[in-house]
Design a protein that fits this description.
Layout (H helix, E strand, L loop, with lengths): L6 E4 L8 H11 L3 E4 L6 H18 L2 E5 L12 E4 L6 H8 L4 E6 L2 H9 L4 E4 L17 H14 L5 E4 L7 H5 L5 E4 L1 H4 L4 H13 L1
Parallel strand pairs: 1-2, 1-8, 2-3, 3-4, 4-5, 5-6, 6-7, 7-8
Helix pairs in contact: 1-2, 1-8
């Protein structure tokens, strides 16, 4: 069973902090899982970022997961990939990266979750919970009742996959979300745009863990 962190921090393209600065801040705040999400750079720039973040993560004992860009596997010290394409073939992806790499996928429905779980994804990000400018998309929002129903159905089906809520989550949403039976939470904007990055990270971490 691979290690999947309950509180996952996601970097993003923002004006006031580079991805590397975001990763450094998150690690200083205690992050054990960083998802590098950059869809705007060429491969050489991506690798520059990833190598710098990998060094930071190595210093702090933090897992580094890269959004998409699975073609970079083996070119940097990457522990996992998160694939946002909800139609992705996880059987083929697993064959491509091997068994040691962590593979996560995005889902918006129970059907999405069941399929990627059966195909061998190690965890799933289920969302969006709320509207977010960090990752614009046209998928319907998932209510607390739907999170609970989906996790209940997964449990009944005996399919074991950690489900992480994602999308526009604020600190005041965490307690109710965790009560639905989901495994954890992923956050980007609520930390990146907070007045105090480290304090915001630690508030989320404590809310998710306890």
């Amino acid at each position: 069973m691979k290690y999947i962190e309950k509180f996952q921090y996601i970097t993003n393209d923002i004006p006031h902090l580079t991805h590397v600065e975001q990763a450094q801040n998150a690690c200083e705040a205690g992050a054990k899982w960083i998802q590098y999400r950059c869809l705007t750079k060429a491969d050489d720039e991506l690798l520059n970022d990833i190598n710098a973040i990998a060094e930071i993560c190595d210093d702090w004992g933090t897992t580094l997961v890269v959004t998409n860009h699975i073609h970079l596997n083996g070119k940097a010290d990457i522990q996992g990939f998160h694939i946002e394409d909800m139609g992705a073939d996880f059987i083929a992806l697993r064959e491509q990266v091997g068994e040691d790499i962590t593979l996560g996928g995005s889902a918006n429905t129970l059907e999405n979750l069941v399929r990627i779980a059966k195909e061998g994804a190690d965890y799933a990000g289920l969302g969006p919970f709320a509207a977010t400018e960090t990752k614009p998309n046209n998928f319907p929002l998932i209510t607390l009742e739907q999170y609970k129903r989906i996790t209940d159905e997964l449990r009944k089906s005996a399919l074991s996959i950690p489900v992480v809520a994602v999308g526009g989550i604020k600190i005041y949403d965490v307690a109710a979300l965790m009560q639905t039976g989901i495994y954890g939470i992923a956050v980007s904007g609520a930390i990146n745009f907070a007045d105090d990055f480290i304090e915001a990270y630690q508030d989320f971490y404590e809310a998710v863990k306890f």
